[in-house]
Amino acid sequence: MEYLIYAWNFFYCINAVISSDIISFEVNTxxxxxxxxxxxxxxxxxxxxxxxxxxxxxYLGLYSILNCLVIxxxxxxxKNTSSDSYNENYLTIKRFIxxxxxxxxxxxxxxxxxxxxxxxxxxxxxxVNLNPTNNPVSVIENTSYQFECETSIGSPYATVxxxxxxxxxxxxxxxxxxxxxxxxxxxxEVTRSVLQFQPTKHDHGMRLFxxxxxxxxxxxxxxxxxxxxxxxSIYIREGQDLTILCSADGNPPPFLTWTYPGGxxxxxxxxxxxxxxxxxxxxxxxxSSPTKDVVVLQDNEELIVKCECxxxxxxxxxxxxxxxxxxxxxxxxxLIANDIDVSVENQFQNGITVSFFTYKAKPSESGTRxxxxxxxxxxxxxxxxxxxxxIIGIPGPPYNIQVKDxxxxxxxxxxxxxxxxxxxxxxxxxxxxxxxxxxKHEVSEFVNNNxxxxxxxxxxxxxxxxxxxxxxYNVLGRSNTSDEMNFQTLEQNGxxxxxxxxxxxxxxxxxxxxxxxxxxxxxCLIVKVRRGRASKQVFETTTAEAKxxxxxxxxxxxxxxxxxxxxxxxxxxxxx
Length: 576
Fold this sequence. Notes:
Layout: H1 2-18, E1 22-27, E2 31-32, E3 38-45, E4 50-55, E5 58-64, E6 68-70, E7 75-80, E8 86-93, E9 102-108, E10 114-121, E11 128-131, E12 137-140, E13 145-151, E14 159-164, E15 176-177, E16 182-187, E17 190-197, E18 207-213, E19 222-225, E20 228-229, E21 242-247, E22 257-260, E23 263-266, E24 269-272, E25 283-289, E26 294-298, E27 302-310, E28 317-322, E29 334-338, E30 343-345, E31 352-360, E32 369-375, E33 380-382, E34 387-392, E35 398-404, E36 411-417, E37 426-432, E38 438-441, E39 443-449, E40 452-457, E41 465-474, E42 477-478, E43 485-488, H2 501-518, H3 520-531, E44 565-574
Parallel strand pairs: 2-10, 12-44, 26-34
Antiparallel strand pairs: 1-3, 3-8, 4-5, 4-9, 5-6, 7-8, 9-10, 11-13, 13-17, 14-15, 14-18, 16-17, 18-44, 19-20, 19-21, 21-24, 22-23, 25-27, 27-31, 28-29, 28-32, 30-31, 32-33, 32-34, 35-36, 36-40, 37-38, 37-41, 39-40, 41-42, 41-43
Helix pairs in contact: 2-3
């Protein structure tokens, strides 16, 4: 039996070495600007039991066939299993800070197979110095000169490019690049570039400048068609071929992705054969994540929603709506996001287009439904399903408090709730009597009718002035305390009265005296006063209960604007 166990362990170890559970581990950037988002993507084999994410050996989250675990609110983990050959496991840092820099690992729980990426904090360069410093510079034609460009401290190290402006300062399209004539070195986070340049008489009046960039974002792509810069629409006859070349600067070097009707492509040059004018309608629009119909969220909690559709030509654009709790009336639906506000992936290779929308829970939107709308020039289709929002939270403070039906030992309290929190509600009552100290007082009856509340107070002292305040609470917490309310109980055997009962009794006494003088007329007056009293209102009790649900997550990527620094001076040549 021992040999069998040994043989199994040996086979397991050999299999772990031969088979790689982790296919690849990628990140959108390794030098991260503080406050920006970071997205890790870990591809694992389909049969992998589970993977875990770590930073410097500290667990951040894991995925297995049994569950998903995230141990920090600073991170989001998500998974895509739509591929037949591998799983996509994502780790998102919502807001990067300096303490999050370190070595990140995607590791197989079963075999320990792993891949690692190191993240560093980005420090943008703020200036570059050009030497010599005098401007203009006097040079001799056909004589070699050395020029130096040195950056401020920055992480990562900057790349430096050299140019002549060709006497057109306001037009960069015709600048002449001299970078191949330069060499660069890095030391102590400072980049130093040296240009060896031999001017000719044609360089008289030109300006020489350097441009430094250390990864604060790629430049705007520039494109060429038939060797000409593309500044406007290109017109192609149906059936002709199309070739466009684009380029962009950045550190690290940016990659280019093309999106066009019918597909996507990555690379600097796009080639399309036999351009056609066919159009295809959008079809099968639905919310694919979360998969449940009802989503329970706490106040201000974020939920990432995913909507997808079958590809159309041209590609679909998306809008997101709240139905305003009136499913049969579309005219009052609220537009909450469009393509400008959401992340859209054109996954044409899989036959679908996907839109991601981040929703932030608001108590006023509880009971409404989220749905998406996809459209192109051919048609528009609303998602076949929607998400019912149940927003829970700490209830708001009681307001509009009224004390009714005051007797010598009891009273009825009525108030309103702007927000109940969406969960079962309880009430806490405090009274301040003759002792001037706040004391908790038991509520004998509590009736919750939506936002209209009622509670009964018993065991009060007769002929006592009270100050009252109210707090409501649920399992998530307590509301703020209400405004204080004053009332006074009646004397023993004083009967039943509304708040301000002394004035009413005084009116009845006056009516009795008046009746002695006026006879039957006074009795009619008393009858009228009694008829004017409101009948006691009956409240229905309703309770809202909800269980905390899981929040499905996906991801979105963050675009960073381009920043660069440059210095220039004019050259004056002298003939010898």
